[in-house]
Write a structure and sequence with these properties.
The protein is mostly helical. About 75% of the residues lie in helices and about 5% in strands. Strands 1-3-2 form a 3-stranded mixed sheet. A hairpin with a 4-residue loop joins strand 2 (about 65-70) and strand 3. Helix 4 crosses helix 6. Keywords: Hydrolase, Membrane, Protease, Transmembrane, Transmembrane helix.
């Protein structure tokens, strides 16, 4: 049973990553009808939404794209910054979606920012406490580790609506501003949906691990 469980938690993330890379690679070779570079797509959407203060920067790495709310900067990986593809447009628009969320003080984005320090503590210390508790047979340590882990899991669950909402905003902006044609919506949505799989997979694995540890703790309590 445990072998099946561990196989699942290993396979799901790998499958999600393969799906993302395959979809991104495919649509990175399909030029958008607007032929705008990713950086131009980002700038166009930002300006249309009055976000003139948000900068766009090129960053190293593959799919390292992100929005930094501290510096109000959209950072795009080189391929997406310079690329004219549907994938580049989709990713750029998605990151701008986060900038729009920031401007509008989107509730789930604010909640995620609030949870960051708690989630970091949970990620760093939960397993230390759980392992110590299991080795020494101290259920209270295991329980404390579970509480810390629950904070990290909550962060991942809150991330889901943030990412899905950013993708929804990206689609709306791309269509409204003519970045893509109607017949390109399907391909653009595929790129955004594939990217979301990584967050869904991470959240699913985190929840499964939390449930497993709660069952372990329950078992320890029964043995006392």
């Amino acid at each position: 049973m445990f072998l099946i469980y561990f196989a699942i938690i290993i396979i799901i993330p790998i499958w999600a990553q393969i799906r993302v890379k395959k979809t991104y690679s495919k649509y990175s070779n399909v030029a958008s009808s607007s032929h705008l570079r990713g950086a131009e797509v980002a700038r166009k959407i930002l300006d249309e939404n009055g976000l003139y203060n948000v900068n766009i920067e090129e960053v190293r790495g593959v799919l390292s794209d992100h929005y930094d709310p501290r510096t109000k900067t959209v950072r795009l990986s080189s391929d997406n910054y310079h690329g004219h593809s549907i994938a580049a447009a989709a990713v750029a628009a998605h990151e701008v979606g986060h900038a729009i969320q920031d401007k509008e003080a989107y509730s789930f984005l604010r909640l995620r920012h609030t949870l960051v320090p708690v989630a970091n503590i949970g990620s760093n210390f939960s397993w230390i406490l759980i392992i110590i508790g299991m080795l020494l047979g101290m259920s209270n340590f295991v329980l404390l580790g579970i509480v810390f882990m629950a904070a990290a899991v909550l962060f991942q669950l809150v991330t889901l609506p943030v990412e899905f909402n950013a993708s929804s905003r990206a689609m709306d902006q791309c269509v409204a501003l003519g970045v893509i044609r109607n017949d390109e919506e399907r391909e653009t949505r595929k790129v955004l949906s594939a990217a979301a799989l990584t967050y869904v997979a991470a959240a699913a694995i985190a929840v499964l691990e939390l449930v497993r540890l709660i069952l372990v703790y329950t078992g320890m309590q029964s043995d006392d």
